[in-house]
Specification:
about 325 residues; mainly beta; RNA Polymerase Alpha Subunit, Chain A, domain 2; 4 domains; 9-stranded mixed β-sheet; 5-stranded mixed β-sheet; 24 strands; elongated
């Protein structure tokens, strides 16, 4: 009775002050509970760890996991970085096993959140003998179009080794890769692309995991002629004489990418010879050189390749 009387005294003593404090505590409790009771479901990929020599014949790909926490913590969750790691007890590459998925099996960046539901709670995994098989790699798919020209593609290696279920792999002869995007490209390039495992087969390893793809952007070429390009001479500083060339005009033929060659201005191609080492009154044959727009990559032909040059005084 004394204990009850003491408790009653504690409760009723200064009750006018304690009652608001109690009400405030209740409000805070429910506010915190409400702020951390948001829920978000995600389909989480299942990863099965088995002993060497055992392969996965069949398993569900994902489980639906519901996480609870504050809005901010749930916003930080990355579905790609979370996995359901299952470790069967199987030691024999045959039969199947029913396994309960527990919250502790969900691994990843789970700061501030907790697992409140997993569906289904029990999954079934079938096992098989693990083998290694060499299969061909199909030509990578090309998506998009280059800005100019067409695509020629080569890749290495042309085959890879896959480890997985004997029953699943025995009829597999090839695997594909990630696509290669060439959209808007103007120059050739190389890149590594990932080998994609067969969709209906769980594989433990692909070696190598990537292939090197060489993409060659081939552009259409064109040929353009300048029939009468005047030959000009270059002399040393202070030269005041005359230079005469025979013939005084040459033909220039340029071959290259159509979009480049077709845009060359008619007066942008110049022919010249270097007469700086010729004495006055001397006639000699000199090679004709071309002055072309900077950065223009073309094959150039001059006809004739040399001219007779004569240097005289005033």
């Amino acid at each position: 009775m004394k204990t009850v009387e003491k408790l009653k005294t504690v409760i009723t003593n200064n009750w006018k002050l304690k009652l608001p404090a109690l009400a405030l505590a209740v409000v805070i409790f429910y506010a915190i509970r409400g702020a951390t009771s948001f829920e978000v479901p995600y389909d989480i990929v299942i990863k099965v760890d088995v002993e060497e020599g055992i392969a996965i014949l069949d398993q569900p790909k994902t489980v639906r996991v519901t996480f609870r926490g504050s809005q901010e913590d749930l916003r930080r969750l990355s579905q790609k970085e979370i996995t359901a790691v299952i470790k069967p007890k199987a030691t024999d590459p045959a039969g199947s096993e029913r396994i309960k998925v527990r919250p502790g099996d969900i691994e990843g960046q789970l700061f501030g959140v907790r697992v409140v539901q997993i569906e289904p709670q029990v999954i079934k995994i079938a096992f098989d003998r693990e083998i290694e098989k060499e299969v061909a790699v199909t030509r990578p798919q090309v998506i998009g179009s280059p800005l100019i020209g067409k695509v020629e593609l080569d890749y290495m290696p042309r085959s890879v080794k896959i480890r997985g279920s004997n029953l699943r792999l025995q009829n597999k002869e090839e695997v594909g890769t990630e696509p290669v995007d060439v959209d808007g490209r103007v120059e050739s390039f190389s890149k590594h692309v990932r080998i994609l495992p067969p969709r209906d087969t769980w594989v433990s390893r692909i070696q190598p995991a990537e292939v090197t793809v060489n993409v060659n952007i081939v552009t259409e070429s064109t040929t353009r002629e300048w029939q009468r390009v005047e030959v000009r001479g270059i002399a040393g500083s202070g030269f005041t004489g005359n230079m005469r060339f025979e013939p005084s005009f040459v033909k220039v033929v340029l071959k290259g990418r159509a979009e480049k060659v077709d845009n060359i201005a008619s007066n942008a191609v110049m022919a010249f010879v270097d007469c700086s080492e010729i004495g006055q009154g001397v006639t000699t044959n000199l090679a004709v050189k071309l002055n072309l727009p900077i950065g223009l990559e073309v094959e150039a032909v001059v006809e004739p390749e040399s001219v007779s040059a004569t240097v005289s005084g005033k």
